[in-house]
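user: can you give me the structure for this one chain? C-alpha cells are fine.
assistant: on it. calling the predictor now.
[tool input]
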Amino acid sequence: MNIKVLFSKIYREDEFEADFVDHPIGNQNLYRLHYYESYNRGENRYSVVDMHYKPFMLPVKMSREDGFKVLSYLTDYIEENGNMKECSWKSVQTLDKVLDLERLGFTRVENYQEEDVIDLFTVSGLVKRFMNTPYYQKYFEWYTPLVTKEEIVNIYHNLNMTFTDLVPTDKVETRKLCK
C-alpha cells in the first residue's frame, strides 16, 4: 500500500461533481485498486489522499468483464454489510483485503512494472480535481452497478469454482461523495 497526502489552497463547491470520460485501457492482465480523494480542509484549502494497493491478477480464465463484475459485487456487499459509505477509503481497503481470500481465486503479484498495471480508480470528495491529475488519462469506469449474487455464482460456476458470500465486516462511518 502506498499513501500520499498533499495539501494545497483553493476549493469550490462545484468540484464535488464531474462527468468523467472513459479512457482506453491496454491488454495488461495486472490490476490494482487505487483510491483518490480530495477534500476540503476549510479556509480555501484542500487535501488529497492518493493510495494504491498491491497488484493482482483475476482468477484463471475469468474474463476482464466478469472480473469487474465480481469486484463490483464485492464492493457493494462490503459497503452494505459493513455499513460503509459508497466509494470510501475503508471500502476500498476492505476490498483489497478480501482479494487475499484464496477461495475467490485472485492472485497477488509481487514483481511488476508500473506500465503492466491497470489502475481501478475509486475517486471521492472534490472529484473535479482528479481530472487535473495525470491519473485521469488512465481512468475508465470499471464498476458495474446492481450485479446480483446469482450472476457471481454463475461466473464462478463457469470456472468450476464455488462462490459464497463474505462474512459481514465491522460497521464503520466514512465520507461520501465519490465518482
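assistant: here you go. The CA atoms of residues 114 and 133 lie 17 Å apart. The helical segments are 64-81, 89-98, 149-158.
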